[in-house]
Amino acid sequence: MSVLLLFLDGVGLGDDDPSVNPLARAEMPVLSSLLDGKRLLRTTGPMVTERAGFIPTGATLGVPGRPQSATGQTTILTGINAAQIIGEHWGPKPDARLRRLLEGDTLFRRVVTAGRRAALLNAYPSGYFASIERGHRLLSAVPLAATAAGLPLFTADDLYAGRALAADFTGDGWRSRLGYTDVPVLTLRQAGSSLAELARQYEFSFFEYWPTDVLGHRASLEEAVIALEQLDAVLGGLLDAWDDTRDLLVVTSDHGNLEDLSHRHHTLNPVPTILVGKRSMANAVRPTGFELMGIAPLILAALDLERIRL
User: Does the residue 309 lie in any domain?
Assistant: First the structure.
């Protein structure tokens, strides 16, 4: 089987207020159909529908302060409460304390050590690698965990060859902002279908969609609504190509942000976790008290790499 973790940076469960919450305003028919017509809101409780399981997921990790990307993502990747271990929320990039965790027993390393295939499906432009080599940029938690497990980061060549996807799914941003004028540009539904096809080549794969967090900090409601409606179209292509009987799709986030554009900061809200396929996994999760630490053991259990501990 294959497990795909579709990671949406900075998406929490907020109020049903279309004036500040784009998740209460955007038209997202694909997502809504998974949740029996419901939206991703604070009032949407745990459910198992015909095709999906939905679990509100705690992101504060029992530590005071606003959740941050580095500790949240480290917790998702390791199943360890990273914020509790270091005594604070930290981000956006991992420091030495978190790097030690990310260089250890992560989802990527566990899959690779078991002799199975894993990949981070994002493609990175040449400027990204040059900036890291010059010391002007630090690896964020996800690519750090992948490379620490011995996995390569995909490049522009991989994007051209269809072995990876751009962070905006379609590749349009590579043309309009990065100068790759001849890079293939996919439709939103094609991007979703390609993501499913790529995921099938691995036992575990991860795709990081970070524009949601950027738009949360930008606090532009109109831009956020457009991005969410585009994401929904990608999800439609992905789900049309997804094999529910064999594979598991996990959609989750590390902290809230986008759901409250009345300010430009992270929130204390829970985040959504959506499971598609392997429906027994949704029933294995307790409906209340589920936190980010539970995602890694859930995935390992789906892959028969470790008994579930939730």
Answer: no
- The structural domain count of the chain equals 1
Query: Is residue 249 in some structural domain?
Result: yes
Tens place of pLDDT per residue across the chain (310 aa): 999 999 999 999 999 999 999 999 999 999 999 999 999 999 999 999 999 999 999 999 999 999 999 999 999 999 999 999 999 999 999 999 999 999 999 999 999 999 999 999 999 999 999 999 999 899 999 999 999 999 999 999 999 999 999 999 999 999 999 999 999 999 999 999 999 999 999 999 999 999 999 999 999 999 999 999 999 999 999 999 999 999 999 999 999 999 999 999 999 999 999 999 965 466 666 667 899 999 999 999 999 996 444 3
Q: Quick one: three-class SS letters along the chain?
A: CCEEEEEECCCCCECCCCCCCHHHCCCCHHHHHHCCCCCCECCCCCEECCCEEEEEEECCCCCCCCCCHHHHHHHHHHCCCHHHHHCCCCCCCCCHHHHHHHCCCCHHHHHHHCCCCEEECEECCHHHHHHHHCCCCCCCHHHHHHHHCCCCCECHHHHHHCCCECCCCCCHHHHHCCCCCCCCCCCHHHHHHHHHHHHCCCCEEEEEECHHHHHHHHCCHHHHHHHHHHHHHHHHHHHHCCCCCCCEEEEECCCECCCCCCCCCCECCCEEEEEECCCHHHHHCCCCCCEHHHHHHHHHHHCCCCCCCC
Is residue 307 assigned to a domain? no
CATH of the domain at 296: 3.40.720.10
- Can you give the residue range of the structural domain that contains 273? 3-302
